[in-house]
Amino acid sequence: MKKLSNTEKLSSTEKLNLVVLDMAGTTVADGGLVEQAFSAAAGRLGVEPGSADHAEKLDYVRATMGESKISVFRHLFGDEDRAQQANTAFEEAYGELVDGGRIAPIPGAREAIERLKGEGRTVVLSTGFARTTQDAILAALGWQDLVALTLCPADAGGRGRPYPDMVLAAFLRTGAVDGVQQIVVAGDTSYDMLSGVRSGAGIVAGVLTGAHDKDQLTRNGATHVLGSVAELPELIARAEA
């Protein structure tokens, strides 16, 4: 007997009314600022640009895009004090780049969010950045009031992706849907996909505007892969049809 997917289990009355969207790489184009901010942070901790150590650490940052940044720095620098120093330096560097006008919405992202809201869906923006960095991005884009809820790892108990905690926090805090199968998760990284799968979301959509390619997204559980988040409203509409 064929096992039904979460979306196939939806009844006609179960709308996909909670949409949890990643920020950098999914709804926000930052032009590689994560890598630039990491290099600045690593330099403060004595990691020489161009060294083998720097290259190895940068490869890990790339592989773990989407994960809580403090978790990444704990892995890279070992002890908690150095991890916190690196995280603070990263936030400061990223914030300066954001303030310098180095970010922009992914084309069609705001329009997609507004369409989803107009259809009666609740949209939540989530990130692996700290709250101060997330707020700086929202302010730079003028998105402070765009969605009902924004979440960072600290808002969900401290664990970021690939754990499902932020998706489940959105589910619990908004009360927008009756079951997790009515959640849509979209992101540009393998960790976004894993967090969506682990949450039980009905649709886990990868987008090709950020860190990881179609193969990486699919291998980590994407139910669909889209060119960009601008295509998401049509995907949801088709899933409900």
Automatic annotation (TrEMBL):
Transmembrane segments: none annotated. It comes from the Bacteria. InterPro entries: HAD-like_hydrolase_sf (IPR050155), HAD-like_sf (IPR036412), HAD_sf (IPR023214), PhnX-like (IPR022468). Gene3D superfamilies: HAD superfamily/HAD-like. It holds the Pfam family Hydrolase. SUPFAM superfamilies: HAD-like. This is Phosphonatase-like hydrolase. It comes from Streptomyces sanglieri.
